[in-house]
Amino acid sequence: MTSRMYIDGQWVESVSGEEFPVVNPATLEVVGHVPSGNQEDVNQAVAAAHRAFSSWSKTTSLERSNLLYRAFEILLERTNEIAKILTLEQGKPLAEGLGEVKFAAEYLRWYAEEARRIYGDTIPASATHKRIMVIRQPVGVVAAITPWNFPAQMVTRKIAPALAAGCTVVLKPSEYTPLTAIALFSVFEAAGFPAGVVNLVSTSPGDVFGDAILADSRVRKITFTGSTHVGKYLMKGAAEQVKRVSMELGGNAPFVVFEDADLDAAVEACVVSKFRNAGQTCVCANRVYVHQRVIDEFTHKLKNRVERMKVGNGLEAGVEVGPVIHADALNRIQAQVDEAVKHGARVVLGGGPVTPSGLKGAFFAPTILTQVSDTMRVCQEETFGPVAPMIPFTSEEQVVAMANRVEYGLAAYVFTRDLDRALRLGEALEYGIVGLNDPLPGVVQAPFGGWKSSGIGAEGGYYGLESFLEYKYMSIGLSR
């Protein structure tokens, strides 16, 4: 499978003619080649977006809404096809891929509707001969950078609000999962978006794109999902030209289970949160805090549930845990587990790589650790893998202090039957998203964003439009 970039309404090769391979992380087979764009390719895409902005920004909200809704319809029609591409290059089970593509479509539908609700204000003036009006206008060309762990959902979550606001977009997908983005851009093409409104540039390595957009004054907004390290680099560079930024960065989610929780429900929730996408989600449970009165029972139930999970190629029936994205990720996870064991942790389940059905990919066994200290790397760093460290606690105050002790603040989870306690914890935890008896709080209509080093800004809901719009205040003087 050979694919192309999408610039100014055309499918094109890179200026250099160079390509790079896309590898299936389950089999290590090459599943496609995509152009390796350079700075000139990025410049061409930005130029196309800049030209298109003058007309796209003046279209009616109804026109933008209709195009987004048409893209939603086409994406639903192609769900099975795109989900298979997603699983081939990313590795997650096909059932998860299907769910992700449908979720990606929902962002198109939501912002098709939200495009019609970009309101302004009239404000009472302080003089009888004046009127005050506030309107909203699009910021301009948007550069979007998306990660490999959700290669469909992240694309539409960034592009849909930008287009709804009247911005034009240049997107760079992860070099590990560009084929899903290419398939999505074929949806935008089929929907009839004008040339230059949406542009796709694939690059490897990723810093080619970052350097180019930071230097280009035509880019007025950067939206990025990825590591905190790269986010800080982009924020520093954006400051030179005062570009707007929104960042969804690293996470280190605490999963808190109180002694009064429904343990069976909490176990299922932990499995969903921790082992979905092989633990490679920014909001997955990274530290599992369980009240000391029930930690042994909870751990036993969790072990019995997790050891039944099938590990393998995401295209195989019944597989619940696919590969991690590459060997470097496997080695990083192993290093965290080894460090924990060295300092006293006990491996209850898993603990290292596995080779299901003779596959060559980077598979890590679903792992449960006990006798874990909150100071171990597996708790202080984001694991991004299928490892659940179990940590006991004795009181609300203690667990809140431990949960808040890290630099990240994206998502947190609390399981209890006590409504008062749930609300107290929800307010005390320093996180942008809190799931109270809910392991999957992400929805299109609510803000998704983190505190502290987990990012700036939010995506989703009407909140997701804010960073793509400027306020304009017009003071109108009337003849006396």
From TrEMBL:
<dbReference type="Pfam" id="PF00171">
    <property type="entry name" value="Aldedh"/>
</dbReference>
<dbReference type="InterPro" id="IPR016163">
    <property type="entry name" value="Ald_DH_C"/>
</dbReference>
<dbReference type="InterPro" id="IPR016162">
    <property type="entry name" value="Ald_DH_N"/>
</dbReference>
<dbReference type="InterPro" id="IPR015590">
    <property type="entry name" value="Aldehyde_DH_dom"/>
</dbReference>
<dbReference type="InterPro" id="IPR016160">
    <property type="entry name" value="Ald_DH_CS_CYS"/>
</dbReference>
<keyword id="KW-0560">Oxidoreductase</keyword>
<feature type="domain" description="Aldehyde dehydrogenase">
    <location>
        <begin position="11"/>
        <end position="473"/>
    </location>
</feature>
<comment type="similarity">
    <text>Belongs to the aldehyde dehydrogenase family.</text>
</comment>
<feature type="active site">
    <location>
        <position position="248"/>
    </location>
</feature>
<dbReference type="InterPro" id="IPR029510">
    <property type="entry name" value="Ald_DH_CS_GLU"/>
</dbReference>
<dbReference type="InterPro" id="IPR016161">
    <property type="entry name" value="Ald_DH/histidinol_DH"/>
</dbReference>
<dbReference type="InterPro" id="IPR050740">
    <property type="entry name" value="Aldehyde_DH_Superfamily"/>
</dbReference>
<protein>
    <submittedName>
        <fullName>NAD-dependent succinate-semialdehyde dehydrogenase</fullName>
        <ecNumber>1.2.1.-</ecNumber>
    </submittedName>
</protein>
<dbReference type="GO" id="GO:0016491">
    <property type="term" value="F:oxidoreductase activity"/>
</dbReference>
